[in-house]
Specification:
It is built from 6 helices and 12 strands.
Length: 216
């Protein structure tokens, strides 16, 4: 299942506009905050899919019957661009466990690249709700690689793949290479094209560089 939140006219689209706009996105603090704010919107929408349990809250004047989430959550992000998104999810799911993935594009002399995996820091995800976040879903290779490494730590109850901007090609790759059951893909926007260097068009540029500065 693919859910595209940007298809509805909501405040999320203002944050997404600021991420894309060349006149705004070079403000790195604002760029990181917009990644975080969009993730907070995703968190609210994803929370609607959780299991809930009844509790009673003792107030100064009586007892209130309420329903609160009853799932164990693991938030996983692909460094480094995924870190602001991770913070956004933690703002809402403050009791979640955390996983961090080091994966990157390793370029050859001919300019071609493959996704290289370096490290995973992760608790058991068995029976838990897994949220896997990366701002850009370009080819889909890094997301699939990361998922495959994560499920070595257990079988999640449900997996939410979250990207702010995706290409159609990347989504199709993810759908072909991820389980058809118990996986939901959440997007802010779905763009049509990839360049020959596998950058999304119109996209927004390099999210990691815009958030944290250029790298060698």
């Amino acid at each position: 299942m693919v859910k595209i939140l940007g298809d509805s006219n909501t405040l999320l689209n203002k944050f997404l506009y600021e991420l894309r706009s060349v006149s705004i996105q070079n403000d790195t603090l604002r760029f990181r905050r917009n990644l975080e704010r969009i993730s907070e919107v995703f968190a609210y929408e994803i929370s609607k899919t959780f299991s809930y349990k009844p509790v009673q809250a003792q107030t100064p004047l009586g007892i209130a019957d309420m329903m609160i989430p009853d799932d164990d959550i693991v938030i996983a992000s692909i460094m480094r661009a995924g870190m602001p998104m991770h913070n956004g999810f933690l703002n809402y799911f403050d009791g979640a466990e955390n996983a961090f993935i080091s994966a990157y594009r390793k370029y050859g002399k001919d300019g071609a690249f493959k996704i290289a995996f370096e490290h995973l820091s992760c608790p058991s995800i068995d029976g838990k709700v897994l949220i896997l976040a990366d701002p850009m879903l370009a080819t889909g290779a890094s997301m699939v690689l990361s998922y495959n490494e994560l499920v070595k730590r257990g079988t999640p109850k449900h997996t939410h793949i979250v990207s702010i901007v995706a290409s159609k090609e990347g989504v199709e790759y993810a759908q072909k290479n991820l389980p058809s059951k118990n996986v939901t893909i959440w997007l802010g926007a779905l763009d049509d094209e990839l360049t020959v260097k596998s950058y999304i068009v119109p996209g927004l540029g390099d999210a990691g560089d815009l958030a944290y500065g250029s790298k060698e």
